[in-house]
From TrEMBL:
Species, as recorded: Brassica carinata (Ethiopian mustard)
Family: Belongs to the light-harvesting chlorophyll a/b-binding (LHC) protein family.
Coiled coil location: 203-257
Protein name: Chlorophyll a-b binding protein, chloroplastic
GO cellular component: chloroplast thylakoid membrane; photosystem I; photosystem II
Amino acid sequence: MISILMLPADVANRHACRHAIYNGACNLTLPMKELWLAVYIVDAILVFFVIPFAMFFYEGDQDKSLGKRIKSSLLWVVSTAVVCALVLGILYGVIGKVDFTVRHLASGTTSFPTSWQFSNNQPCIGNTARQCSAFTASVASEKTWTMRTTFPEYVVALATIVGSVLFTIFGGVGIACLPLGLITAFIRRPKAVITRSQYIKEATELGKKARELKKAADGLHQEERGGAKGRKWRKNVKAVEKELLQLEEDVNLLEEAYPQGEKAETAWAFTVLGYLAKFILGIIGLIVSIAWVAHIIIYLLVDPPLSPFLNEVFIKLDDVWGLLGTAAFAFFCFYLLLAVIAGAMMLGLKLVFITIHPMKWGATLMNSFLFNVGLILLCSISVIQFCATAFGYYAQATAAQEIFGHTLQSLRGIKYLYKYNVFQIGFVILAGLTFLYYITFNITTHKRVLNTKQRPKMAATSTAAAASSIMGTRVVSDINSGSSRFTARFGFGTKKAAPKKAKTVISDRPLWFPGAKSPEYLDGSLVGDYGFDPFGLGKPAEYLQFDLDSLDQNLAKNIAGDVIGTRTEAVDAKSTPFQPYSEVFGLQRFRECELIHGRWAMLATLGALSVEWLTGVTWQDAGKVELVDGSSYLGQPLPFSISTLIWIEVLVIGYIEFQRNAELDSEKRLYPGGKFFDPLGLASDPEKKAQLQLAEIKHARLAMVAFLGFAVQAAATGKGPLNNWATHLSDPLHTTIIDTFSSS
């Protein structure tokens, strides 16, 4: 907080002597450069020494005495200090210099006139002299001055580089998720209080889930006492901690939806007002975030800048009242720090490849809190450097700009990162990706639900809690004992089969045609079911009339003809790898074919467009090129003939299809998941998984229609899709599908 507010103080300090009437007035103001270095040296000590010591102390073995834990922590910190000192000393001795590019300028002299002949009509310098000497100087006049920077400035510079990487990630994500998270919370707010019967039902179902997690925590605690604290144990502990955070969130959700106590109505009123405040703050934050991103693009990424933008706004506010512009400047700097904190909190729960201690309001462990404090302190240095650069016109001639502007951007080895705006570009890209993520997956698709069947991670009430010394936080002690996910992960108990879901017809759902009537067997349970089956091809066996045994895949027929009888009973046939379906023409079979064909169509559509765009070869002529020029990849010949490649493809795809058919679980056949098919864990949440499944089937259907259009275009015109599109755009009124078919 102090370091962020130092920058507005630096600006105000510079303004204090701006209108002074005597020389040397600025020497009587605060020594901001020394204060900057002092603040950042303190930050560096906190980040690299104090916070690591506290983390080592809290994460040490609790069974050891206080003295041993302090000694162990000091050893780790001293080791870290030695390594940091060696690295800093070597880097400072080798490349701790700044390279300033200067230009030598020289000009002639003119004798002072002895008469009064010069006037406005006849100036001393002729009208033809329009340029400064710097513009007419030769390239050879450029020189490089090399100077050694001070060690404190070098430490601050390296800390800024480390912080800039974190700032780019956290700040880019946070500048979008901070306002959109508030708006999303308002959109997904509970609209009304649930009834007591609903609450009891939820609490009863959720209460069964806590025991399994409590059992898992007790088992891990016993393993800890037994000394079996290996890699697997630590992995399981982190998994439990992550689940605890999710459970805490669900506890709050249930308590919000059913406030209790004597002041339940007051609590609900404050809940409504709280969400309304989030919405208002989210709108304000969205405006500020858009202003920040626009300012970065207009002022930093465009050379020369299109406009001073926010710099000019601050200057005009200063003209209205002396401190108004400084206050607005401080607000934008502080908002950027809040965005970094919001990004750290979001990525702490969502990031997959890098383990970051998660943070959550009211449920953050001490070591996680210390870890993120260190990250935010590192980022705060970069936030100040970023603000000093972004508002360089407003913050000119300040001590911060002297440190971060000239020294940092001329430091040998790292100046190119700032010369080419690497961090600013990364910041804008991550902000755009986060905005698209929120619009696609959070704001427009997600809904808050309390149904435990739809929300399997729902927590119990806060009264069903027990202390767990192993995690350092409370464990909800009322979790469903039938949670096979915990059973399989930690090995406590046996895995139970998932209960069969009863089909429920969803009456209020969109259909493929307004006013259409959905068939009885298309009840909306399948993802992307819009009731489309005009020919009745997807009728299950109990709806079909048949003349042969439909349980035999090799004999089943779905044809019109002589009808022997109508199937009325349902037989549960056993699936095998070679015959995974009891019916040739069934809903599950059609869904699998549709999804697989759609995935191939998406790849084919992308491939057809990409190849034509990159090489100019249309997709229908790609095979001809291979036959004429031989097999190649990216212009390099392959040591295989076309026939060999075909056999390789047949064997590889055949093996993959056989392995897929060996999976008898219909859900896993369609969505295998795992680290190979879902490395980012996007489908870990059931709600997100449902939305992703719907998005996939929609894109698959569009891709199949698109590639069918490509094929029709190729047959009619002989051109590729991009060529056809360009032809249509050149004359959209006379180059249409009707004109194409009428002229062929």
